[in-house]
Design goal:
With about 230 residues, the chain is an alpha+beta fold. It is built from 6 helices and 7 strands. It has helices at about 70-85, 85-105, 120-145, 155-175, 195-200, 215-225, and strands at about 5-10, 20-30, 35-40, 50-55, 65, 110, 110-115. Helix 1 (about 70-85) packs across helix 4 (about 155-175), helix 2 runs antiparallel to helix 3 (about 120-145) and helix 4 (about 155-175) packs antiparallel against helix 5. The longest helix is centred in the middle third of the chain and has 29 residues, at about 120-145. It is globular.
């Protein structure tokens, strides 16, 4: 509900087949007729909103590219969103991992620190390996961009990887809080101020936005591996 601009994929050629009739249009959120209604998520926050349009008029110069190029432009935008931003995501996951390790040093399992529990140690080691893989793949993506290569279908590999890795890392962090990990941030008994629980809930979002994990797998199968469609 704080955005000043949005883009829409609009059908400008109603007789064109499928994606061919779609255009990419920028819209000023101050345009009369736009109503924004925040959506409350399971985290209790409203990071997303729904927009209603009533007799909204948008000038033709807000069109990006040519008419009918909207689907092509949108896929380019998604390529950058899925792959080019992963190094910044790595930094966030790295901080989260360090907090998980610190929690494991203080949490007790069977009268000992959780870092001495074999299962917990194995999960932490797995998270460390996955985090390093994300870092290296992110550097590879940035190198390709620096060399002038546009992100293609392979960006779905990055998006699928970081989103599902993030879920596993968040679940590990919240599992360390035990049954108290079910408490919300407004509970005085919530460990770590409820941040671990919030992270696990929020970790569901990356597997949905910018294309669900199911969509990413289809893209990888068809456009990267060249597998036949059924």
């Amino acid at each position: 509900d704080t955005s000043e601009w949005m883009f829409c994929l609009v059908r400008t050629e109603p007789d064109a087949p499928k994606h061919d009739g779609i255009s990419y249009l920028l819209i000023d959120m101050k345009t009369p007729g736009i109503e924004v209604a925040p959506l409350i998520q399971m985290t209790g926050n409203s990071g997303f909103s729904q927009c209603f349009f009533k007799d909204v008029v948008v000038p033709a110069e807000n069109l990006i590219g040519k008419p009918t190029q909207g689907w092509q432009i949108a896929n380019t935008v998604l390529g950058y969103e899925r792959g080019a931003s992963t190094l910044s995501r790595y930094a966030g996951y790295r901080r989260e991992f360090e907090q998980v390790v610190e929690s494991a040093r203080t949490v007790r399992r069977g009268g000992r620190p959780a870092t001495q529990d074999r299962v917990t140690r194995q999960r932490i080691a797995q998270a460390a390996v996955e985090l390093e893989v994300l870092r290296l793949n992110s550097l590879r993506s940035l190198t390709a961009l620096a060399n002038g290569h546009k992100p293609g279908s392979e960006s779905s590999l990055q998006k699928l990887y970081y989103s599902e890795m993030g879920q596993r890392l968040a679940k590990l962090g919240n599992d360390l809080t035990g049954p108290f990990g079910q408490l919300r941030t407004d509970s005085p008994r919530a460990p770590l101020g409820g941040r671990a629980a919030q992270r696990e809930l929020q970790s569901r979002a990356p597997t949905i936005f910018a294309g669900t994990s199911e969509i990413q797998r289809n893209i990888i199968a068809e456009r990267v591996l060249g597998l036949p469609r059924r």
